[in-house]
Amino acid sequence: MAMRRPPATTAIELNLAPMVDVMMCLLIFFMLATRMVEQETSRIDLPAARRADDIGGKPRENRFVVNIRRSAAQEGAAEYVIREELLAIEDVLARLEIERIVNADVTCVIRADRSVAYRHVEAVLAGCARLQVQTVWFSASTDEEGGD
What is the tens place of the pLDDT at every residue in 88-133? Predict the structure, then answer.
């Protein structure tokens, strides 16, 4: 009886390229998602509220966020910011109108600096009324210090 040879051992190689590809895709996704959230919520000294409902868990896909902050260039003026883009009130309302056409259930979120005059917030509210935006939320801070 002839002796059999043991089977030849095969080298096992671990291919890490697909895992690296997936990790890079995830990294890029989270970097972009973080940037989009930062654009929506620019640094604003929000007014204080004794009681406020948390809208963090509510759906984000139907939200149109308008940031209103005090103008550094002109006393008493305000800057309207959408996704870190500085716009005039007419452009803000034009974008809101487009958003309203695309999505009838759009929610306008107004984030106004506590030092901004009410007339600047009122301009956005009047635009919401004219465009028949049914839901308007105001961002506020629950602590006395303000912040976002």
Answer: 999 999 999 999 999 888 999 999 988 889 999 999 999 999 999 9
Contacts of 58 (CB under 8 A, 6+ apart): none
Query: What pLDDT is recorded for position 122?
Result: 94
Tens digits of residue pLDDT in 76-95 = 888 898 888 889 999 999 99
Angstrom distance (rounded) from CA 42 to CA 113 = 11
What contacts 41, CB < 8 A, 6 or more positions away? Answer: 65, 67, 111, 148
CA angle 33–42–45, rounded 5-degree value: 145
Residue 64, judged by CB atoms within 10 A of its CB (0-12, 13-18, 19+), counts as buried
Q: Which helix (H) or strand (E) holds 40?
A: helix 17-40
**For residue 33, what are its two tokens?**
């998602």
- Identify the structural domains of the chain with CATH numbers, from first to last: 17-148 (3.30.420.270)
